[in-house]
Each structure stands twice: as C-alpha cells, then as structure tokens.
UniProtKB/TrEMBL annotation:
Origin species: Persicobacter diffluens
Name of protein: 3'(2'),5'-bisphosphate nucleotidase CysQ
Any one GO cellular component localisation term in the record: plasma membrane
Subcellular locations according to the entry: Cell membrane
Cofactor(s) needed: Mg(2+)
Annotated Pfam families: Inositol_P (PF00459)
Topological relation to the membrane, as annotated: Peripheral membrane protein
Length: 256
C-alpha cells in the first residue's frame, strides 16, 4: 500500500467541502439549476472542490496518479498500467445538491490493483466524516468530536435496506425480498454505503448505472467496516475498479 495514512486525506476532503459550501450558501447562487450547465452553481462547486483536491493530492503524493469526475478523459491505454491511483468525486449527489437537502458528499479513494484500500466520504453541510482503511477499520467523526469506530450489523433477520433518495428500480424489490428485508431507509449520494458501515442499514443494492468515482470511497469505508460488495445481485464476483469503461455495473453491498 502507498506509504500514507487515511488521516492525511481528511483535511483535504474538509477543504473541498468548504469550497463547495461557499458556493452552496452564496445568496447570488440560490437558484441552483438541475443540469451541470456551464457556469451553473453546481458546476462551479464541482470544479472548485476538484481543484482543491487535485492540488492537495499532487502536493502530498506527487507520484500517485489521479482519476476524477472532472478529469476523467485519460485513455485506458495509459491508466490500465496504473497499479495505484486516487479516484475522486469532488461532489457526489447532484440531485441532493439541487434539492438543497444537504445529502451530498466529497469522495476520495485510493485504489490499489483494482481494489479500494482506503476512502473518505465527507458531508460538508453536517461536517460529518466517514473514512476507512483496509486492515485499520472504519470510522465516523462529526465536527471536532472524537472519531467513533464503525462496524456492520451482521443481522440475520429483520434486515433494513438503504435505498436511493433519487433512484429506484423494480429489480431492487426482488433483491430485497431475497434477503428478507423488512424495512428500508432512503438517503442520497455515497451516504448509502455509510449507513451500512455504521449499522443503520444492512443491505444496499443498486441496479442502475453509476460511475467508478461514485462508489470507490463508499466501498472502501463499508469494506473496512466488515461488509462485502459484489457485481450484480449475486454473491459471486467482487466489485473492482479501473475498467476500460468507467461505467459501473449494478452492485450489491451486504453487511452480514
């Protein structure tokens, strides 16, 4: 693993969150548009956060490559040779940002040999940080309070599923029935992974498309908390990164 500690990523995520909030709370930007049009508040927030993250990562880890939503056009012939790289979504939760419900996040993950080995999911509006590192566990920190260790529930019955606040599918129902889900909760962005990591939910299934930067940090956190994540709706193939097409297939997260 790259010679670094997950704690080195926390101030970077917080600085990106501050850049987002400056635009989010700007009264001149109050009419948030629902598309990433040029110069929209959402686009400006994306770009501002991305600039903060990329600059900090390049300064602190100059030899480690970066793939981000705002800089995604790196040819596969180039990045396929990368064993280690950062995978960044500077602002995850487009619809949550537009709705102004606060459920959007800053995501930073470190990928090694296709697997997320550490990740940070930061919610700027509530100043809540979720982070996890392979072999070292997962944690949640709110503001300046001490960090709390996270662990999945391991529930055998009466399971709770976390579902998207903005997306849903018929296929989800079949999976939830298969695993004996009796209740559900809804939340936006990468916070769905975090709900499983802290034991508030037991399962997260996503049928619809996502991009690699949407899931990497959340997966790192939930795996560090003891969960498993698979491609599709069966427990057969582990979910990995740096595919030729950065579009993700469906996936299943199990906290038991």
């Amino acid at each position: 693993m790259l010679n670094m500690d997950i704690l080195q990523l926390l101030p970077i995520a917080k600085a990106a969150g501050a850049a987002i909030l400056k635009i989010y709370h700007d009264p001149n930007q109050s009419n948030v548009v629902d598309y990433k049009a040029d110069d929209s508040p959402l686009t400006l927030a994306d770009q501002a956060a991305n600039e903060v993250i990329v600059a900090a990562l390049r300064k602190n880890f100059p030899e480690t490559h970066i793939i981000s939503e705002e800089g995604k056009d790196i040819p596969y012939e180039v990045r396929s040779k990368w064993e280690t790289f950062f995978l960044v979504d500077p602002l995850d939760g487009t619809k949550e940002f537009i709705k102004r419900n606060g459920q959007f996040t800053v995501n930073i993950a470190l990928i090694e040999n296709g697997k997320p080995v550490m990740g940070v999911v930061y919610t700027p509006v509530t100043d809540t940080m979720y982070y996890g590192q392979a072999g070292k566990g997962a944690f949640k920190q709110v503001g300046d309070a001490p960090a709390e260790a996270l662990k999945v529930n391991q529930k055998a019955e009466n399971r709770i599923a976390v579902r998207s606040a903005s997306h849903a599918s018929h296929e989800e129902e079949e999976v939830l029935n298969k695993y004996g889900v009796t209740d559900e909760m809804s939340v936006g962005s990468s916070l769905k992974f975090c709900m499983v990591a802290e034991g508030k939910a037991d399962l997260y299934y996503r049928h619809g498309p996502t991009m690699e930067w949407d899931t990497a940090a959340g997966q790192a956190v939930v795996l560090a908390a003891g969960a498993r994540m698979y491609i599709g709706n069966t427990e057969e193939t582990e979910f990995t990164y740096n595919k030729e097409n950065l579009l993700n297939p469906g996936f299943l997260v199990l906290g038991f």
